[in-house]
């Protein structure tokens, strides 16, 4: 049986409605997005409806693979953070869902067919049908050429986490002429067996039949087989969507045109067939007037250009090349071949009456999304005996739609270079993405890990729907790495954390759960996270109302409050506040330093153990705060925007004291340049230090040597230790790691992420990610490197930062031997 772990719950039911229910989450972003797309269109009933993805409020490509070793016809599958794709070169690959890094592969299952084609349109011919994942293993069906004129079909059992092959066995059905057959249908599973269906080659050459076979998952040995058109030919089971399977393991498959056009000589062509798990034929549906199975046979108007999808209420929906939709009962198909018919209801859905529909359906609630050759039709199932067409759009897509993140996703039926996202209520194209290569016939996307995946030509493409990653603030809590950032697509506070895999949730703002103090305002910028009293905390801005917000984890749930900006009796203001937060713990008290946008002042909030207290500390200043405790005293470095200087405030035990450190010139290395933005302070070797930006385009460094402040320009003026002459120094994040001060910062000229560290008596510099850094460990050539947030965890150094090209959060970490990189949800 198909099984999965989604959002912490085990899914063991074959009923597609059960799988869908288990994926239901509140909010626009799930606490744990769908991490398993194990079969064609997600579930055994072929619904293609993934309710576990975040809203795709925008769409951008985040990575695509280099050219693989063959064409991609099969739908990609998702298993945890692996995206698995099959090629016509009989190869399997697994890529990291976040970064596109190759996890394993190619795993080569044999030599694909390249000769002795009487007809057909795929060469080489290898893995065409979508594999299936079940019980912790992936099953793939490969066509193997054993000589210039002989061919076999091999079923491989593969570990999706490593690519290790458990078996790779010849399962060609006895009596089959493999030279005229093709396995395009997606694999399925039923009662511990893999279900495989075959049709013929494009062009209907030779004496082929529709075959269906079951093979034991555990042993790879054939259990049962059945074929149609006995005494004749054709009747292929070739639809890309593959057989559907119900909760009892019953198998539903549609057939193409058989060789009989005599209404009195039924050959199971152009029919829907229901089998038991042991392939005993239980019932069938043969269309009657106006498109009888015999006339469909005669005109090559295959009903089986799609396989059925299972609906709630014990119904199923089927449509084929004739463009006529049929509503049937799963419990018992009519089993009437002369004159045929007996469906609950049927009506023309597609505009055309030949070559009208192919590939696979999607089902969301009572709506079936139908892949007509010229576009997508939406059909509402009104009752068990009626349906009607809601809309029909012909301006984009048409092939095998899926539903994910609130939109219907489709590609061009016979090949194209655009992924389309349609509004489910109207069919209007609201998202689109240009692909790097042309898709093949009947291509369909998959979803998972907050992303969409498309096989385009011989490349795998990943797309993301949210613009995230700005204003990151990272912290280690409960032995896990946590990052708070801004989801600018819906203007909300996003929380990403690692617990055996990356998880994501919307904490506050649009898409967050209600009732715990959350707001629907635009929130989530200017984060400052820390741990206080054993609880994870974050301070951030509400830009709708101009207030300071506070979120904390109480051990069981998140709680929220507005701290300042609404006035009050403890020193609160009604000014717009909350930007440039920097929080710390001092003397057992939780404290935050932040900016007042109206007066330009530096604000200070602290929890005295009973209530929050507030004060204004300094005048027209207060941006780019970086606060910490040094020598038993709270300190804050910040910008004086009016004087373009870098300021310093500290509590001496009795009162606050203030000084201007840099920007006025002086004898210890000070400058008269405009300085003081993007402060990041640390304590190293008993010295208080600050890294900050010089508006002329340099990275500045100030440190207290025990007697006086010293200053230097680190990067931006060139030099022999890896310095650049680019404009640098913005978005600093400094820390001490391995006994060395480190700083991560932005190169705004090249849009890359830079790294400076003190080692061996000198400063050293490198460009870590962005254009010119290579791609061997996950680097990308995107514009990136702003909004850095660095931390040390265990023996590893980490930095989180923003990818500007593909708006998302990036992650770099030092393993002890090399830097590695990935994109995060």
Q: What can be said about this structure in brief?
A:
The chain is an all-beta fold and 825 residues long. Helices cover 2% and strands 49% of the residues. β31 and β32 form a beta hairpin.
Overview of the molecule:
The protein has 825 residues and is mainly β. It has a five-stranded antiparallel β-sheet with strand order 3-6-7-8-9, with no helix packed on it. A five-stranded mixed β-sheet has the order 4-31-32-33-34, with no helix packed on it. The N terminus is likely disordered.
The CATH architecture of the domain at 4-464 can be named as 8 Propeller
Give the termini separation.
29 Å
CATH topology description of the domain at 4-464? Methanol Dehydrogenase, Chain A
Amount of beta strand: over 45%
- State the helix count: 2
Give, in spatial order, the strands making up the sheet with the most strands: 3-6-7-8-9
Name the average pLDDT. Answer: 92
CATH class of the domain at 4-464: Mainly Beta
Task: Tell me the overall shape.
Answer: elongated
Write out the CATH superfamily name of the domain at 4-464. Quinoprotein alcohol dehydrogenase-like superfamily
Proportion in helices: under 10%
Low-confidence stretches: 1-32
Number of E-state strands? 65
Report the sheet with the most strands, covering strand number, pairing sense and barrel closure. Answer: 5 strands, antiparallel
Derived structural class: mainly beta
User: If you compute it from the alpha carbons, what radius of gyration comes out, rounded to the nearest whole angstrom?
Assistant: 31 Å
């Amino acid at each position: 049986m198909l099984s999965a772990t989604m959002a912490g719950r085990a899914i063991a039911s074959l009923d597609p409605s059960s799988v869908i229910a288990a994926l239901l989450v509140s909010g626009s972003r799930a606490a744990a997005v769908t991490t398993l797309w194990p079969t064609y269109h997600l579930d055994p009933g072929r619904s293609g409806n993934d309710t576990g993805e975040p809203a795709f409020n925008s769409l951008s490509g985040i990575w695509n693979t280099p050219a693989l070793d063959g064409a991609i016809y099969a739908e990609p599958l998702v298993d945890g953070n692996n995206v698995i794709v099959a090629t016509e070169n009989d190869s399997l690959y697994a890529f990291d869902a976040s970064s596109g890094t190759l996890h394993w592969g190619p795993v080569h299952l044999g030599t694909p067919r390249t000769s002795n084609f009487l007809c057909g349109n795929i060469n080489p011919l290898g893995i065409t049908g979508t594999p299936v994942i079940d019980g912790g293993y992936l099953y793939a069906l490969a066509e193997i050429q054993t000589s210039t004129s002989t061919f076999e079909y091999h079923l491989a059992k593969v570990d999706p986490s490593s690519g290790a092959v458990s078996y790779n066995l010849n399962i060609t059905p006895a009596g089959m002429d493999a030279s005229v057959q093709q396995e395009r249908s997606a694999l399925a599973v039923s009662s511990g067996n893999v279900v495989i269906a075959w049709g013929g080659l494009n062009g209907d050459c030779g004496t082929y039949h529709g075959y269906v076979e079951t093979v034991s998952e555990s042993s790879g040995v054939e259990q049962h087989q059945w074929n149609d058109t006995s005494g004749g030919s054709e009747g292929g089971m070739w639809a890309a969507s593959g057989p559907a399977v119900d909760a009892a393991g019953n198998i539903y498959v549609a057939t193409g045109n058989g060789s009989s056009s005599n209404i009195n000589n039924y050959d199971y062509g152009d029919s829907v067939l229901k089998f038991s798990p042991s392939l005993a034929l239980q019932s069938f549906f043969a269309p009657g007037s106006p498109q009888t199975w015999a006339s469909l046979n005669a005109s090559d108007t295959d009903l089986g250009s799609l396989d059925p999808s299972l609906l709630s209420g014990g119904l199923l929906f089927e449509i084929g090349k004739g463009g006529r939709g049929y509503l049937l009962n799963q419990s018992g198909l009519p089993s009437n071949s002369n004159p045929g018919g007996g469906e609950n209801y049927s009506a023309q859905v597609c505009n055309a009456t030949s070559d009208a529909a192919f590939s696979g359906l999607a089902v969301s609630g009572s709506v079936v999304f139908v892949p007509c050759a010229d576009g997508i039709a939406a059909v509402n199932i009104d009752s068990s005996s009626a349906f009607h067409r809601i809309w029909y759009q012909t301006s984009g897509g048409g092939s095998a739609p899926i539903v994910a993140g609130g939109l219907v996703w489709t590609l061009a039926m016979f090949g194209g270079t655009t992924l389309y996202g349609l509004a489910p209520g109207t069919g209007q194209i609201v998202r689109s993405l240009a692909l790097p290569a042309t898709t093949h016939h009947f291509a369909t996307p998959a979803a998972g890990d907050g992303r969409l995946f498309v096989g385009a030509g011989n490349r795998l493409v990943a797309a993301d729907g949210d613009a995230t990653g700005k204003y990151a603030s990272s912290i280690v809590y409960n032995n896990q790495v946590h990052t708070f950032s801004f989801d600018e697509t819906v203007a909300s506070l996003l929380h990403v954390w690692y617990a055996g895999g990356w998880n994501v949730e919307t904490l506050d703002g649009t898409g967050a759960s209600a009732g715990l103090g959350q707001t629907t305002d635009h929130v989530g910028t200017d984060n400052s996270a820390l741990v206080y009293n054993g609880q994870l905390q974050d301070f951030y801005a509400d830009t709708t109302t101009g207030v300071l917000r506070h979120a904390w984890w109480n051990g069981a749930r998140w709680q929220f409050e507005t701290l300042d900006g609404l006035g009050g009796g403890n020193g609160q203001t009604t000014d717009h506040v909350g930007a440039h937060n920097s929080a710390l713990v001092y003397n057992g008290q939780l404290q935050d330093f932040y900016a007042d946008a109206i007066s330009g002042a530096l604000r200070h909030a602290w929890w005295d153990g009973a209530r929050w207290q507030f004060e204004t500390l300094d005048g027209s200043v207060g941006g780019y705060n970086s606060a910490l405790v040094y020598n038993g005293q709270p300190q804050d470095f910040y910008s004086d925007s009016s004087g373009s200087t870098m300021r310093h405030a500290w509590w001496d035990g009795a009162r606050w004291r203030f000084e201007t450190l840099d920007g006025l010139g002086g004898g210890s290395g000070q400058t008269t340049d405009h300085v003081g933005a993007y402060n990041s302070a640390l304590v190293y070797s008993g010295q208080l230090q600050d890294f900050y930006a010089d508006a002329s385009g340099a990275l500045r460094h100030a440190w207290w040597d025990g007697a006086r402040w010293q200053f230097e320009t680190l990067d931006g003026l060139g030099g022999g230790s890896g310095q650049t002459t680019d404009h640098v120094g913005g978005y600093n994040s400094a820390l001490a790691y391995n006994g060395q001060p480190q700083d991560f910062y932005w190169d705004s000229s090249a849009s890359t992420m830079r790294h400076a560290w003190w080692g061996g008596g000198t400063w050293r510099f490198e460009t870590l990610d962005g254009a010119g850094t290579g791609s061997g460990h996950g680097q990308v050539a995107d514009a990136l490197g702003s909004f850095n947030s660095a931390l040390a965890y265990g023996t590893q150094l980490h930095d989180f930062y923003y990818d500007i090209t593909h708006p998302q959060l990036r992650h770099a970490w030092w393993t002890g031997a090399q830097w590695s990189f990935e994109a995060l949800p």
